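Notes from hallway chat w/ T.B., transcribed later so I don't forget. T.B. wanted the structure written out for a chain they're using in a teaching module, and asked if we could keep both sequence and structure tokens in one place. Agreed to drop them here.
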Amino acid sequence: MSDNLVFRLATPSDDARILELFRLSFGRELPLEWWKWFNYRCPCGANRTSIIEDLDTGQVVGSYSLLPIKLLLNDSEVSASLCTNVNTHPDYQRRGLFTRISNYALGREKDFGTPVSLGMPNQKAYPGHMKVGWEVLCPLPFLVKHDCRQRSHACREVDSFDERLDQFLSRISSRFSFLVLKDHHFMNWRVVTRPDKEYTKYVCEEGSDLKGYVVLKHFDDQGYRKSHILDIQAETDDILCELLAAAESFAHGRDELNMWTNPHNPYAHSILAQGFYERESQDQLIIHFNFGERTPLREQAWWFCLADNDVY
């Protein structure tokens, strides 16, 4: 362990050492195929990974990634980024490197024209994020339903999304004041081409028009069988009920069906009416204003879902 450290943006030649750092930090391996998908194929641009390199050993001893995304903030579309894959080598912890690489990575976001960053830190990382100026935007409790059953619905399962998704989202986006923008290119990257997970997608249509969609997956947690609603959007309450019926049928025989919610979820009342209840979690959505004016978010309708982060 030395003090001959350099902070810089990573290049593809650093990939193997970054993956080794992840293994040492978290005790599990990130597949190279996943890393290439996540870092280099996002339609909004390549992931920006800042690293700390120990020049004496050649090791990468810290990393901090910011994935480009698009965000609807009040009435404006802004360039934003999603904080992912923050870690420090076990031998280099308690030396203030988390703070230093956070300041380095977030300080460079002005160079990329990215005024806002979002994150969902685990409990261990939370204090470090707060130390460098992140703020809690809102908690992310779950909406949960048990005893799901097979239900009839008017939805159709699809393999991917087309341009109709863009037209649908354009029609409903005005109801939101906070929303991660995902066109069909982004959605297909996120839930169709991801190499390590399988997702089920349903759409609800009227004629040739898309009126709503839901993205689902199964997850087993030490024998407890969950089904997740990764994302759901609907033009009307009736369409929402059809999509929830498809989700419940998908979760039939599982221990629970759940989804993230937030204090300004415009669908919460209708979802609760379908037999869901709200359960607290430790998950929190945090925000960092990298530069420029901090415009308060209107409490009109916010939407942040499981598909908007990199874990689920």
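Follow-up for T.B.: The two ends are 35 Å apart (CA to CA). Might be a good example for the class.
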